[in-house]
Design brief:
Order of helices and strands: HEEHEHEHEEEEEHEHEH
CATH class: Alpha Beta
Helix content: 25-40%
Strand content: 15-25%
Number of strands: 11
Low-confidence stretches: 1-15
CATH architecture: 3-Layer(aba) Sandwich
Strand order of the largest sheet: 1-2-11-10-3-4-6-5-9
Shape: globular
Amino acid sequence: MSGPSDKIKTYHYNNPMETFPGLTIDDLNRYLPAIQTVEDMSMTLESLKEGIFLAKCIDGLKNLPQESMDLIIANPPKDNWDTTLGLGDGNTLQEYYQWNQLWIQESHRVLKKTGAIYILSPWSYSGMYQGLLSNSFQIQTRITWRNQKSLKQSKTWNNETSDIWFATKTDEFLFKQNPIGINTIESPDADEIDTNLWVDIPSIVDDEGNYPQKLFSRILDASSFKLNWVLDPFMGFGDVGVACKKNGRRFIGLETNKDHLLLAMKRIDNT
């Protein structure tokens, strides 16, 4: 009979055909049992839990305490036919609009009064996000980023830009490490405020992500302090989570795709 010291090491996954792209068998054995779902999101202001959760954005947002997040960075699905929205196999533009309206309303609820939200948007939906944000947020500016990754060949004009909407919950918010709208504290000097035309961030992806880390580092530096809570309702491959870890911010991410979530867990763990 074998004793405790003779225990054989076993793996849940040992078939190479079962590995996901970018994940080894060891990765699956490590990260699959560690997946957190929406059922694990029972939190209070005093017990916020950092990490990525396998959850639809609206379900996850509803499980977050009111006024708990300092900053929200969102890159919502850009196709109304995206089945991860939970509206069926194909969504009408009206359903897509209503879905965006719901998650933006929940984002307003969980954002602190001094917090900010940034939404990455293609030009085709930029007007929609401007309208939805203006219903409950204070829009501060529209950032234009020269995102050449979005460049597509056209018979007319090639589009080389993406919009990033910057909005706040109130007129009192944090910007460039300075409170804005509070009379007792001076605002940043004019030469410290950057332009909203971002042509100096190349759309070169640093590693397995979709966006350059410099993009999110600039947003984090402008609208958060170290140890602040940052929410990404559409975590994808973990770009925002990686940036938060590099810059000393705490984060909560929501993702519906298990493959993407596992890769994000690995990327953040290796940062």
